[in-house]
Amino acid sequence: MNIIDLRSDTVTLPTKEMMDAIQNAKLGDDVLEDDFVVKKLEDETAKLTGKDAALFVPSGTMGNIISIMVHCPRGSEVILGDKSHTFKYEAGGISALGGIHSAQLSNNSDGTIDIDKIKTSIREDNVHFPKTACISLENSHNLCNGSPINIEYLSQVYNIAQENNLKVHTDGARIFNSAVALNLELKELTTYTDSITFCLSKGLSAPIGSMVCGTKEFIYHARRTRKILGGGMRQVGILASAGLISISKMTNQLKTDHLHLSQLANGLSQIKKIEINPTNYKTNILYFSITNNPFSDEEFIQHMEKQGIRFFALSKNKFRLVTHSGISDKDIHFTLNVFNNILN
Ligand SMILES: *Cc1c(COP(=O)(O)O)cnc(C)c1O
């Protein structure tokens, strides 16, 4: 049976063009800075984000840990959202590996943190307090409905950071989704942040890899921190060759992914038992819950999988659907039919 896999955009497979590029990549030792393909990917990424330099890393998780470790000395504090990926899903790495304290402020449903909350959580200079060093945002915000964060908000946060001598890091795992949703050049969305990470291996279909971007000096330290974490890789042009195709050719696909998601949201919102909030989804992630579900969450997931539809329950009665290049128009129709049949 054909499975419609809506668990995550990480399930995307490399395209035929990527597999060809991988096979033909001219390789070198990247720890010795000898791999031309990696250099090219880093240069192109720096241009796209409007930053001085970029670094290829194995995962988004490592990219965030590296960035926050470079911005925050041991014992200092990062301000982040309580629904951020870094706080919830990175195994406490900034604390375990970086000795970094975190102030966890509540995320709104659109992925922002109230500006006033940020302002009041910046520490005064006092021997009792950790020193605030960095504000970390997430764009688009995974757990907050895949919301894209707009430039006005980003610039407000950046100004506060500048006034207080803090750095801003952006976990932009899906920053291209935000750029597409807001109809902006990537560069515009990366203006008001000192560093940004994004994933090649989600909606952009590369098999492995993320990018970290920032100033030359930041990337110099990031490269060393990557080495500390064991993330220096040798003939990694084999992966960078796919990444080059991700950034040059795969971003258009995201428009289709967003269209598919809004079709899912519209269709599901017409089913009485399904609660979707908000209804105007802007990127490729959708959350819903079910009222009077005749099944337990686990049974429901199993039941749907038997019908060929796979997705996650992230917490009790909180289900998530994610669209990506492996999902076709037909899959969307089929999925809506199955939901209708099971819940009506
Ligand atoms: C997926 C994701 C990451 C981490 O990426 P990995 O490559 O899976 O480590 C970081 N932040 C957000 C918002 C993500 O969705």
Low-confidence region ranges: none
Number of separate helices: 14
CATH superfamily of the largest domain: Type I PLP-dependent aspartate aminotransferase-like (Major domain)
Oligomer: single chain
Extended strand count? 13
Outline the fold blueprint.
Blueprint: E1 4-5, H1 16-24, H2 36-49, E2 53-57, H3 60-71, E3 77-81, H4 85-88, H5 93-96, E4 101-105, H6 115-121, E5 132-138, H7 151-163, E6 167-171, H8 175-182, H9 186-189, E7 195-199, E8 210-214, H10 216-228, H11 237-249, H12 253-269, E9 274-275, E10 285-290, H13 297-306, E11 309-310, E12 312-315, E13 318-322, H14 329-343
Parallel strand pairs: 1-11, 3-4, 3-5, 5-6, 6-7
Antiparallel strand pairs: 2-8, 7-8, 9-10, 10-13, 12-13
Helix pairs in contact: 1-11, 2-11, 3-10, 12-14
This protein binds pyridoxal-5'-phosphate.
Identify the notable features of this structure and list them briefly.
single chain; 344 residues; alpha/beta; Aspartate Aminotransferase, domain 1; Aspartate Aminotransferase, domain 2; seven-stranded mixed sheet; four-stranded antiparallel sheet; 14 helices; globular; binds pyridoxal-5'-phosphate
